[in-house]
């Protein structure tokens, strides 16, 4: 003859909305109710630890995804900065090539200024006499 044994009786967790399935136990079974209750407590503790580990893994995965996004954004920003720096250096080289005529023009302007100063000095000197 079989006896129905509830594995959630006497656990001390109060009235549960969700009832666990009942174990069918043959009369004279070597499994005592205390053993079954202890096994249930260990299963509950294991389930809670598993839930904590899964939660921890989820948090770690989220952190890894955040790190990946940060690394991807940083890589994109560095690539953009390198491309802009290449453009800047190209413009600087072009400016260096374009500057020698400006230097010549500056020399001509200085010569013109000296000539004008000399002309002004001569006109002032000869204009008084």
TrEMBL record:
User: Can you cite a GO biological process for this protein?
Assistant: lysosome localization
> Region entry Disordered: which residue ranges?
1-20
Q: What residue spans carry the Acidic residues bias annotation?
A: 1-11
**Which branch of life, at top level?**
Eukaryota
Which positions fall inside the BLOC-1-related complex subunit 6 C-terminal helix domain? 33-120
A GO term from the CC aspect: BORC complex
- Its transmembrane ranges are none
Report any Pfam family annotated for this entry: BORCS6
Q: Which PANTHER family match?
A: BLOC-1 RELATED COMPLEX SUBUNIT 6 (PTHR13440)
Task: Report the protein name in the record.
Answer: BLOC-1-related complex subunit 6 C-terminal helix domain-containing protein
Q: Which organism is it from?
A: Acanthamoeba castellanii (strain ATCC 30010 / Neff)
Recite the lineage of the species.
Eukaryota, Amoebozoa, Discosea, Longamoebia, Centramoebida
